[in-house]
Amino acid sequence: MIIGTGVDIVKNKRIERLINKYGEHFLKKVYTEIEIEYCQAKKKSISSFAARFAAKEAVLKALGTGMRNNNWQEIEIANNELGKPEVLLFNKTAKKAEELKVTSIFISISHEKEYSIAQIIMEGEK
């Protein structure tokens, strides 16, 4: 059964401006160390950061909470050994997913020159 869905699109230039303006402070507030390392290793790091930002927003929408009682660091978009993105939740955000009886989180992310988009589907039992 679908517990929640979320989709978010972000303009890559917006994330680029935030990174240029706030630098490490912004990166460490929004992204985990694993995400920062992954994105900085990419040739087009801005679109990778933007895609992960959109994914985190989509997760919050799927949970139905927005940022209330959540933290950016509690959502991590990691890649498995084949490069497939996966969602990892921690602390209060993981607890909320558990309360909603989420058993699986499906993610799709994409980016191009100007925009990045992410879709989340949360599946579980009611």
Automatic annotation (TrEMBL):
Xref: Pfam families: ACPS
Catalytic activity: apo-[ACP] + CoA = holo-[ACP] + adenosine 3',5'-bisphosphate + H(+)
Binding-site residues for Mg(2+), renumbered to this chain: 8, 57
Annotated GO CC locations: cytoplasm
A GO MF term: holo-[acyl-carrier-protein] synthase activity
Keyword Cytoplasm: yes
Cell compartments where the protein resides: Cytoplasm
Enzymatic class: transferase
Any one GO biological process: fatty acid biosynthetic process
Residues of the 4'-phosphopantetheinyl transferase domain: 5-117
Names of the cofactor(s): Mg(2+)
Annotated keywords: Cytoplasm, Fatty acid biosynthesis, Fatty acid metabolism, Lipid biosynthesis, Lipid metabolism, Magnesium, Metal-binding, Transferase
EC number(s) reported in the record: 2.7.8.7
Role of this protein: Transfers the 4'-phosphopantetheine moiety from coenzyme A to a Ser of acyl-carrier-protein.
Record family assignment: Belongs to the P-Pant transferase superfamily. AcpS family.
Protein name: Holo-[acyl-carrier-protein] synthase
Classification of source organism: Bacteria, Bacillati, Bacillota, Clostridia, Halanaerobiales
